[in-house]
Design brief:
- Helix content is about 20%, strand content about 25%.
- The protein has 7 helices and 11 strands.
- The strands form 2 sheets. Strands 1, 3, 4, 5, 6 and 8 form a 6-stranded mixed beta sheet that branches.
- A hairpin with a 7-residue loop joins strand 10 and strand 11.
Length: about 325
């Protein structure tokens, strides 16, 4: 789909282009002579090389104030979802030194589009050493994602970018809530709103020392079927959404210290009626005199229609 298609009105949901798997190249795309393609076994010490590369070259903001810096344990978790393929973690090395200078990762997904469940993939954590970004290596990573997913008869994949590449076919929203307004302001990513004061914003950003929510407890293995049922029912509201299994819920949501936390609200029979989950994203901070790392909590929640918990509406 291209931007000019938007003028044609509502378009049918379906395959954009049908490709025969026999037409997919069986060998990787050619690289410049000094580089070689490699698969990365993320269950071995090779993941430490990936960690070093991503810590230095993955997602930095435009004025070089922050850079995303996940932990090594985070990568071990996110790179090994149920059904992952070893050849879907790959990159390129310098032939002369064997240094890893590029990497990306693909995770298998099931996605419902217009009621049809499709095999899909999530391409993420693409990074290239800045010394070599002018050599055309980054586009080759994307082409190689296309090839490797197609070889497994997967014709749809998702990726995120800070640039608009194609006409969007869906959208999502997120809300940001500062937990320490003064520090966020010092980072340069928040300002005191007109008509307010710093003291007022600091007071508004405070959170209670403890959660005053009855029957709130950490999620356990026994909660997996009910959490899956709650999430599945909620996602039915959307034309495009991920499809989960109990195995996937266990991997993604069961609490793991310093990585992911999930809590449920249980009824009198100890059955989960609501849940909230968040994972920790760490950023390196470069332009603050004392703070060198900052953590962000990225979360998803579900509140059932029968819940007794009344949540405040987010501010506009």
């Amino acid at each position: 789909m291209q931007f000019e298609d938007l003028d044609k009105g509502e378009l049918p949901v379906g395959i954009i282009k049908k490709v025969d798997i026999k037409d997919v190249p069986t060998e990787p795309y050619p690289l410049p002579d000094e580089f070689k393609w490699v698969n990365i076994d993320v269950t071995t010490k090779e993941i430490e090389e990936v960690y070093a590369l991503l810590s230095e070259f993955y997602i930095e903001d435009y004025d070089s104030s922050f850079r995303m810096k996940h932990s090594l344990d985070y990568f071990k978790w996110i790179f090994t979802p149920p059904g992952y393929h070893k050849d879907w973690a790959f990159g390129f090395r310098l032939k002369a030194t064997n240094e890893l200078v590029g990497f990306t990762h693909i995770s298998p997904l099931k996605v419902s589009m217009g009621g049809e469940v499709l095999d899909a993939a999530d391409a993420s954590f693409a990074a290239v050493n800045t010394k070599y970004r002018m050599t055309g290596l980054a586009p080759l990573l994307i082409k190689e994602v296309n090839r490797r997913t197609a070889l497994r008869n997967v014709w749809h994949y998702f990726m995120s970018t800070d640039r608009v590449l194609f006409a969007p076919f869906t959208e999502t929203w997120f809300y940001r809530r500062e937990l320490d307004f003064k520090t966020i302001m010092e980072f340069g990513v928040a300002e005191v709103p007109e008509g307010s004061t710093l003291e007022k914003e600091i007071e508004l950003s405070k959170v209670p020392e403890s959660a005053n929510i009855p029957n709130l407890r950490p999620m356990t293995k026994e909660d997996i079927p009910q959490v899956l049922a709650l999430l599945t029912e909620y996602l039915k509201k959307f034309t495009v959404h991920a499809v989960f299994t109990e195995e996937k819920i266990a991997h993604l949501l069961l609490p793991k210290e310093d990585i992911v936390y999930t809590y449920v609200i249980a009824d009198k029979d100890n059955k989960a009626t609501d849940f909230i989950s968040f994972y920790i994203v760490t950023y390196s901070v470069f332009k603050h005199p004392t703070i060198k790392e900052s953590k962000v909590l990225a979360f998803v929640s579900h509140r059932s229609d029968s819940s007794s918990i009344i949540l405040p509406k987010p501010s506009p």
